[in-house]
Amino acid sequence: FAQITAEESEDDPPSREEQVDARLCKRVPAGGKNNGAATEETAGDGQRDGEEAEQPDQMPVLSNKPRKKKKKRKTKKTSAAETLEDNELEDIDSLLEKIEDTNGLSQQTQSGIIGDNRPLLYVEHRNLNPENELKRYFGARAVLGDQRPRQRQRQNVRGTWLTTPKDTWPRYSKTGITMQLVDTRRGAQYFAFKHHREYQQVQFKFLDAVESMDPNNIVPLLEALEPYHVDSLLQLSDVCRMQENQEMARDLIEQALYSLECSFHPVFSLTSGTCRLDYRRPENRAFFLALFKHLTFLEKRGCPRTALEFCKLILSLDPENDPLCVLLLIDFLSLRAREYTFLTRMFQEWESHRNLSQLPNFAFSVPLAYFFLSQQEERSELELSQAREKAARLIQLALIMFPSVLMPLLDRCSVQPDARVASHSFFGLNAQISQPPALNQLTSLYVGRTHSLWKDPAVMAWLETNVHEVLATVDARDPLVEEAEHKRKTRYQSAPRNIYRHILLSEMKEAMAALPLEVTSQPVMGFDPLPPLDSIISYTRPERTNHPSNESTLSLFFQSLLPNFNLQGNIRHNREEEAGAGQDLNQGVNRLMAAMQDMLANIQFQEPPRDDNPEGDGDWD
């Protein structure tokens, strides 16, 4: 009976009463002398519950006392282990409750104070789990319900940080992807994913399925050959998203991340910020794209803090080149997550060598972050005044440098400008027409993505005040205005390839409409949009062997008219069974004649229109 109860306690989550009993069992043996009293108390409780429940407990006692002692020790050990685990879980719950009691602004302040001693792109494991963020918003019970944390992931062998494996996923086995350490220099470690020969064969079949332009050809690869083929999961995720099956699309992305994380190198770290991946290698691109699409789903799900952590992770993999140009996104996620200190710190540390102020998103988002910091009452008066001064100075510089942002931003916020602003030529239509195409893409992307953050009435009042200050500066013919105009004309002539790649992945209608023809005219695949021109190819796809075709020009003509017509269909299918080329030729001729008869039978001639007035004068007006 004791063994049965021990097994049930391992399978079922303990109730409140069981937790209290476990704590009592742990405390009483510590005294040594109270063991007998504790036994009497438990026996008394058994008598209160009923004599029938007491008899099965006494039978093993009368038959074999040493065994009873062994069982009691085993039960005490298991109960002590369970109590220790419950105490750890309660500590975690208490920490989460403390976090829930504080508001978002105080969280942001504390994280900024603690994070100053850490690297800028330091990633925390707990911030990669969206459940932790949802617990802060809605509470642990609303997110997990009656499900205990130790009850989850029971059937999954391996735990991961990026995603939470689900029992509905296929059973994971070695997929043929590994990670190797390529180089170590300047304090950074450079890694690369590697495809084994079996995985390469699946990759070749996947490329054949993509060229067929039929997503149904990708499904057999996942079902029969490799259920965790990463590129197939990415491509099918886009198909599900286009069909508005968001849940399945998100699940496929999580499976891809799970497969890639299981193949990490033992030295590869997500949190150090010193592990690098080269996007020029095709094997590494799937990890970048899966992370980007995952953070997009997280942001739409209402988890901006978790999405910001994934954005920092992507940027840490290649901060110099930034292949997906997440710098155009990280400011928006910081404002959504109320991580204002992180955004201002990034601007201060990276402005000198990255010129972040030349990007419209940083030029406008950083002063907006300073404005939100100036509204925090828990800060000192000196800090509030400094934040107000920096916010006013930076927003005026942004309006002078990028005047074409104001009118579209006000239009998206459904705000009508006053007469002075509407009639002034500096913010007029000429500012939008005269800007280069590359700058138009950046401003359209920023307005379409962050306009919701500017709808606050306090933000609009602050913006209106600074707009009038800028107009006064323009009317005074400040040389700063002319210098900014010169910068706009000389710079932003053409956008780099990573900005185009970011716009395609973001799917902002305003920005995609401004893409050049050289980008929109070529096919874009979801598993590898706009691959780098200087790619590092580790293995090549073998050339496809084309069988000699006997199709003539006439047969190709019929094939263009009738998609089901295939002259070589039966010839290739029965090539091993048929003997002699004459029979193949006869069958091909017969198929061609049948196709001609079918086409002639379906042709309908339309009679020319009759003239109801044949005796007309024939004059044309």
TrEMBL record:
InterPro entries: TCF25/Rqc1. Residues 65-77 have a biased composition (Basic residues). One of its GO terms (cellular component) is RQC complex. Residues 13-24 have a biased composition (Basic and acidic residues). Residues 1-82 are annotated as: Disordered. Pfam families: Tcf25. This is TCF25 factor. It comes from Psophia crepitans (common trumpeter).
